[in-house]
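Morning F.,

Quick status update on the modeling queue. The single chain you submitted on Monday has been processed. Sequence for confirmation:
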Amino acid sequence: MIATLYRYLGRELVKTALVAVLGFTLVMTTFAVIEPMRKNGLGPGEVFKLFWYTLPMMLSLTLPFSVLLATTIVYGRFSMSNELMACRASGISSTRLLKPGLAMGVAVTALSLLLSFWVAPELARRGEDVGRANLQALVFQHLRTKTYYRDRDGQQVVHADRVDPDSHTLMGVVALDYSNPRDVRFVVASSADVRFREEHGELRAMITPVGPVAGSQARGGMLDMGQLTIDLPVPRLFDEDPAFYDWAKLRRVLHRPEESDLVRQRLEMIRRQLHIAQLYELMAQEVNAGQGYELWYRKGTPQAQRYIFSAPLGQVHKGTRLTLGGTEASAEPLPVEVRVLEPDGTGRYTIRAAGAEVRADHNEALGAVRVTADLTAVTILPAQRPGEPTEAP
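Structure tokens below.
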């Protein structure tokens, strides 16, 4: 009798759990993964492959919820139809009735661990390979459908009126750089050439505008840039998540954290922050010592310029910015001076201001730190030419 009861409960649990698993998995796989990928340009063949590659990952998430739902429904219905009361009247305890549910829980736990630690990570890696093979098509599809492409940090945006994937060409290009909210930079060009390169396992889109004209919000006006390349990282289809590492990779990351892309990115971010903070400290030390701090613009190119910052006072604010200038005891402003020189040391002009705020950020396109200075109460003095009389104080 008890064996018949166990088979009855087990059969009802399995049927209900299968229906729940089927529904939850299809919904999560279709709407959370497949549909966005299809809209971004994956073909039917790639979508079908990606479906099977992501199915074990979704099963590892939906199985526990489905079994919980099935157990609640089956035992709830068992109690409502007075079958539980009949069993207890026959001398069968509630603990014995829970054995089919406990057995299913143990089986689902083992299956979920198997999927999470071995099957899902391997198939997710294969799904990522399918997506990476189509990342270039995804970029062009995104530009065609939404007319813009934004990098992962949201600091650079490229707009194109028309896209020609066959010739890797964009028409009607406008690029914006929001890395400095106080000085939004822009580039305008009639067309641009797009090429892709892989760097440290990351795909990057190299956009080269043809005859670009650039400008900035702070400076105003337009500037012919000649040759310019916009370097944008192409985001991965799936962000790296340690929850989907296999057991071997988890152990490797534990002993060698630098092997993880996620850890490497965080370390690189920290290194850049420390580098910028060190730049602020060094600049403040040089300025406060009365020596002035020298910065180069496009060093080694025909557009190269030297900037020498001088001020009676430089202060670093929590490693996030540097202020130059200040006030004396009489509340008189202490001026800031920026000398702009040619590479050979010939003076071009001198900028004098009541104060300056210097900010630095890492520019992905240049692969270097970019420094921006906001000056207040600016006066521009032309450089003194040889033979000209010295300006009277």
